[in-house]
């Protein structure tokens, strides 16, 4: 095998693309030998490190997938011949799938374990895309380590790469590292659960009605998992959405269009996926008699680039008087996302302060402050082939974290003692910067956030199993009244849960289009697997709606360059806005 590889290598060594392809092919059949051989070539400078890295990464992951598929085939073969009972196989599957990430990474770095482990992964029917993502990330990491090790250590690396004891030591180090990480995570989980359990004794609470109040009907759906703040909440956005991005690329290839999801809501720019204007959506709501009854009054201040704050304040004062919109109201960007820039404006001094930090080149939305104390989100969708049938699939109630004073500790100390992860503690501390050194009186409640957005610290509770026929009928009527909108999430304020379940006494404060995620995915009891399943459903639904619209002759898809420009503009606007309350 070595002679064959080197013979072919001598003929194509000047072509990096063919070299990467050669490495990929031979890695499928002789992984360990090729890894050692390539490490030696990188060390001696006979092969470019990038070709080695790409070839090893793809060769390793393709081989891993092949082993997985062999296991899946064997599973069906064994089931047909009843070599193992379905009950026992199901039990093994549940146990194994709970530890698939650790299994894939350990087998990748412990010599001699990969073949049988990945066959077992397929045999136990682990989710294909999850395994593929894990195997790809592990292969990239291994290839990067091998190439970097060879490139930077030079000749010293030759002896180390081929040394059996070095491999065993590295494998043992990986095992010890995984065990250490598991111990740390277990201790942190236990500490969080303990903190959550005695939160009431330390003055921590959530802003919601008393549990004994019979008017409060909505309760979060039962779940075996109860986590005050799951780890994935703190993932960088790219990592959080990476599985969704891969699924979106698959859907784009399947439908032969990357922009098809932007055709789901023809009445909204880019279907509300990115770069849409709140004013455009507000005009749709105002034009619908069914929605107008429930829509909180709103006005938009046009952009005034280059104008001083006083001129913009005078314009705002005149617009407020013409619209009969009194203080207090809510100010928010016309092109906003994730609750950025949402603040209550209580008087003219607060409005001046907001305008002084808001970009004059962007429109500004001012909306009546709802008198209803509770907030929720309702997700609906319908298909162009059957527009009269509306599916109301999600109901989420939002809880607003707060701390209760004990007469001894400052607001900063109360927040830092809370059960929230560091990411959200930073959010709360920034929001309450003006009162951090204040010592609240015993029992005094200090709300930590106003914006009903997960990124701003609000806690979402999934109550989808409590959707009543009356509530579904109300929002079905609202959805059908919006021509050209097929996927939508209503963000609402409501008086109490009884009234909401009857479809009464609520105000629409926002309507989100294709970018409106199913809010129940942010329920803190969701597992990482459930979160990704919900996001996959969202994008599958959007692509199907877009496909049906296109088949009916409706094409509202903006050019890809314009769509990307809208995404970048929205991010730029969000960074230049005042901090959310």
Q: Which sheet architecture does the biggest sheet show? A: 7 strands, antiparallel
Beta strand %: 5-15%
Any idea what the shape is? globular
DSSP strand tally: 11
Radius of gyration: 28 Å
**Average predicted confidence as pLDDT:** 77
Broad structural category? alpha+beta
What does the model show?
It is a single chain. By secondary structure, the chain is an alpha+beta fold. It has 3 domains: 2-162, no CATH class; 201-296 and 372-554, no CATH class; 297-369, Dna Ligase, domain 1 (2-Layer Sandwich). It is built from 21 helices and 11 strands. The protein has helices spanning 2-12, 16-29, 31-44, 49-80, 86-97, 100-109, 114-123, 128-153, 156-162, 164-197, 237-255, 278-287, 289-292, 309-323, 348-357, 411-416, 422-431, 469-480, 497-501, 528-551, 560-576, and strands at 204-207, 298-301, 329-333, 343-345, 364-368, 374-383, 386-404, 445-447, 459-462, 487-494, 506-512. Strands 1, 6, 7, 8, 9, 10 and 11 form a 7-stranded antiparallel sheet that branches. Strands 2-5-3-4 form a 4-stranded antiparallel sheet, with helices on both faces. Strand 6 and strand 7 (386-404) form a beta hairpin. Helix 1 runs antiparallel to helix 2 (16-29), helix 2 (16-29) packs parallel to helix 4 and helix 3 packs antiparallel against helix 4 (49-80). The longest helix has 34 residues, at 164-197. The protein is globular. The termini are far apart. The model is unreliable at 195-216 and 221-226 (pLDDT under 50).
